[in-house]
Write a structure and sequence with these properties.
Helix content is about 15%, strand content about 40%. The protein is α+β, with helices and mostly antiparallel strands. It has three domains: about 150 residues, no CATH class; about 140 residues, Galactose-binding domain-like (Jelly Rolls, Sandwich), CATH 2.60.120; about 110 residues, Jelly Rolls, CATH 2.60.120. A nine-stranded antiparallel β-sheet has the order 12-11-10-14-8-5-15-9-13, with no helix packed on it. Strands 1, 2, 3, 4, 26, 27, 28 and 29 form an eight-stranded mixed β-sheet that branches. Strands 17-18-24-20-21-22 form a six-stranded antiparallel β-sheet, with no helix packed on it. It is flat.
């Protein structure tokens, strides 16, 4: 009997051991890479994902890429696409600005702007005229010249001379010709308060569009400060972000059809064709993530050509996909069935940023590859926005970079579905218990028969 209890106790410990082992959540992943932080005490970091992480991941949503601390605890993190402001450092540019005269209080006042421009289209001088008398005039405003920007304006930042407490409201209008104006921001607070050695400022105006000129005017009778400078936070150019390309060799299927396999969860956003010789073919690009799913058209039909002459090589432009796709399987179909040789399919993507907050002890690592675990994106964007308000609009999370080769964790076992072996173990213990009870019952019956005999 004692021996039986020892066996049951051993089985119970065996059931509890995996729970203790799983306390390190990294063991649910295939492999990890050590991280190096550019600023050890920054608190918030931005990790640009590399080819190795995309190749290791298996989740179609890239949910199996997670940052961990030294204790194996997952850190709050969220994934940002390459063209989102948090994925890269903010870019600021000084803009020319011009004071506007005070406007009359009547509703019928019409502000006319007479401008002199330079040869490049930028404003040299502004003269403002009011259609009615300026008696009882209220405060004026500012005209900001953004015609030199090649991109849109994410936000405007105003700098003024701090002479006294400030709390005003303004509106912002946009125009491309200084004649027709469109409202882009309304009732925006501008704040500059000081008390007990502390200072609270709000100088940022969200814009989120492209225009040549912006007009900032007060709301009501608020008095504006003396402006000293205006800066624009530029909307990132997608072309300015490095494109990475995966070149795939295809296998022939039906006449004029060629299939390809992508070796990772890359966010494919462009496609191109390369051939060994001059060619011109109309192609359609399709993809799917499972061999049992139907193909989905991703680009085309478009005419892809390649021409090599004695001076240079000319070829068609890459095709943009409507949205980034992480599918594993791709297919090209040609309008001419006589195409016999599979072209090289080039799939382009822009690396994404995993923004995370540090918790616990370093060193930190990023793990990838799992069908057992999934990252739940934390509201990191909200935290970053609040930190920008406190630290200034140019503040960005510090950089984190992968240092060193991959370190194995659970290996390919992390790609196997989790089996509910605990349930089977419990059933086994239950069956064993029933067997023990049955054995006792049979033993008692036999002893009773012997006594009666």
């Amino acid at each position: 009997m004692k021996r039986l209890f020892r066996v049951i106790a051993a089985l119970s410990l065996a059931a509890a051991a995996p729970t203790l082992w799983a306390a390190d959540a990294r063991q649910d992943y295939r492999e990890q890479w050590p991280l190096q932080l550019s600023a050890p005490q920054a608190g918030a970091y931005r990790l640009m994902l590399g080819e190795a992480q995309y190749r290791s991941a298996v989740s179609p949503q890239l949910a199996d890429v997670q940052v961990f601390n030294a204790q194996g605890q997952p850190l709050p993190s969220a994934l940002f696409s390459a063209d989102q402001p948090l994925a890269q450092a903010a870019q600021w540019q000084d803009l020319a600005w011009f004071p506007l005269p005070a406007q009359g209080g009547g509703a019928g006042d019409d502000l006319q702007l007479l401008t002199e421009r330079n040869t490049d289209g930028s404003v040299r001088r502004v003269e403002a005229r009011l259609g009615r008398s300026v008696g009882n005039a209220g405060p004026g405003g500012w005209l900001v010249d953004a015609s030199a920007l090649r991109t849109g304006v994410q936000a405007l930042r105003l700098d003024w001379q701090a002479s006294q407490a400030l709390q005003v409201r303004v509106r912002v209008d946009a125009s491309d010709d200084l004649r027709d104006w469109q409202r882009v921001a309304d009732d925006v607070p501008l704040v500059d308060l000081q008390h007990d050695g502390r200072r609270l400022q709000q100088r940022r105006i969200e814009i989120g569009r492209q225009a040549k000129y912006f007009r900032i005017v007060p709301v009501g009778g608020d008095a504006l400060p003396t402006l000293s400078a205006v800066q624009a936070e530029k909307v990132p150019l997608a072309q300015a972000i490095d494109w990475q390309w995966r070149s795939l060799a295809g296998s022939a299927g039906k006449p004029g059809e060629f299939e390809y396999t992508l070796d990772g969860r890359f966010p494919i956003a462009q496609a191109d064709i390369a051939t060994a010789d001059n060619s011109v073919v109309q192609w359609t690009l399709l993809s799917r993530d499972d061999a049992n799913q139907p193909w989905q058209v991703r680009a085309g039909p478009w005419v892809a050509y390649q021409l090599q002459d004695t001076e240079q090589r000319r070829q068609s432009q890459a095709q943009a996909l409507a949205v980034p796709i992480r599918d594993r399987f791709w297919k090209l179909t040609a309008s001419q069935a006589q195409v016999a040789t599979a072209p090289t399919l080039k799939l382009g993507y822009q690396p994404e940023a995993l923004v995370f907050l540090s918790q616990g002890e370093a060193p930190f690592s990023v793990a990838a590859g799992s069908v057992r675990a999934a990252r739940s994106d934390a509201p990191v964007g909200t935290v970053i926005a609040q930190l920008r308000e406190q630290q200034g609009a140019q503040w960005q999370p510090a950089l984190a970079t992968v240092q060193g080769a991959a370190q194995p964790l659970a290996g390919d076992a992390a790609l196997q579905p989790v089996r509910d072996w605990k349930r089977w173990l419990l059933w086994g213990l239950l069956v064993l218990g029933v067997g023990v009870v049955g054995g006792f019952a049979v033993s008692l019956l036999r002893q009773g028969d012997r006594s009666n005999g």
